[in-house]
Amino acid sequence: MLSALVPGSYARANPRIELDEAVVVITGAGRGIGATAARAFAERGARVWVTDVDADVAEQVAASIGGRSLRLDVTDRDAWRAGVDEVLAAEGRIDFLVNNAGVMPTGPFVDEAAATTDLILDVNVKGVLNGMHAVLPSMVAAGRGHIVNIASMAGVLPLPGMVTYNASKYAAYGASLAARREYDGTGVTVSAILPSAVRTELASGADLGGALPTVDPEDVVRAILRTVRTRAARSSVPGWTLPGWLLADQFVPESVERVARELVNHGQALALDPVGRAAYLTRLGRQTREHAKENADV
């Protein structure tokens, strides 16, 4: 549609959804960006459903903001269907979905266990697809809705030590753009957020100085909230990074390669502090084992 090409007209072509009393579902909302987003939406009057694979942290966040919680394994389509049914039964609709859940194991690709590869792809890719698949029917039927998928600058910038993570975020970004086009004209919009390095537990143990700009969860949440108004196809955090990388890759591709080399030398993803990352790695190991066992039982 021509309206999608004219700044501002795409948002005006779709039903406006006020945050006050809007029904919002956020995945991976027990910590980090998701928890920060849950608080921000609740502060603006939204009815927030906090979902996470760890039910206890989801419940704690929900209690602190006056929301509701669900245990949700985003890799399980049946769990998604049941969760969405519960929200619809209680609220009658879902206005916003923030697909935030993600994992970020790092290290040499040849050392990556198959179970780790499966977890990254299942959470970061299937989780996004499952979420969109679950909420789209009710949104399309209502003629309105907005989905925000949290991708990453790793969806456009190849990072050594993060081969599978890169693959997952390229996929999440591409899926967002494709779904946006497929559902154009239905009243349902899809936006992708591409943050640079974010100061959350996922980045624990990493020296966040050097080649990549760093941001806080609040910066990412501001970008999420901005898409409610603009319905932008993609937003990078900081805002200059996506245009900057794409422009450099097109006209000065060796500059992007130089960034990649600097990341290797800087040890960004290949030499993380094991002490600083210990808590996250412990939780990630538990999640990997549980995920592998569930898949083996199927």
UniProtKB/TrEMBL annotation:
Q: Which InterPro entries match?
A: KR_dom, NAD(P)-bd_dom_sf, SDR_fam
Q: What highest taxon heads this organism's lineage?
A: Bacteria
**Record's Pfam families?**
adh_short (PF00106)
**Any keyword Oxidoreductase?**
yes
Q: Membrane-spanning residues where?
A: none
Q: Which first-to-last residue range defines the signal peptide?
A: none
Q: Which UniProt keywords apply?
A: NADP, Oxidoreductase
Q: Entry's Gene3D superfamilies?
A: NAD(P)-binding Rossmann-like Domain
A GO molecular function term, named singly, is: oxidoreductase activity
Tell me where in this chain the Ketoreductase domain is found: 22-201
Q: Does the entry feature the keyword Hydrolase, yes or no? A: no
Q: Which family does it belong to?
A: Belongs to the short-chain dehydrogenases/reductases (SDR) family.
Q: Matching PANTHER family, A to Z? A: DEHYDROGENASE_REDUCTASE SDR FAMILY PROTEIN 7-LIKE, RETINOL DEHYDROGENASE-RELATED
Q: What name does this protein carry?
A: Short-chain dehydrogenase
Lineage of origin: Bacteria, Bacillati, Actinomycetota, Actinomycetes, Mycobacteriales
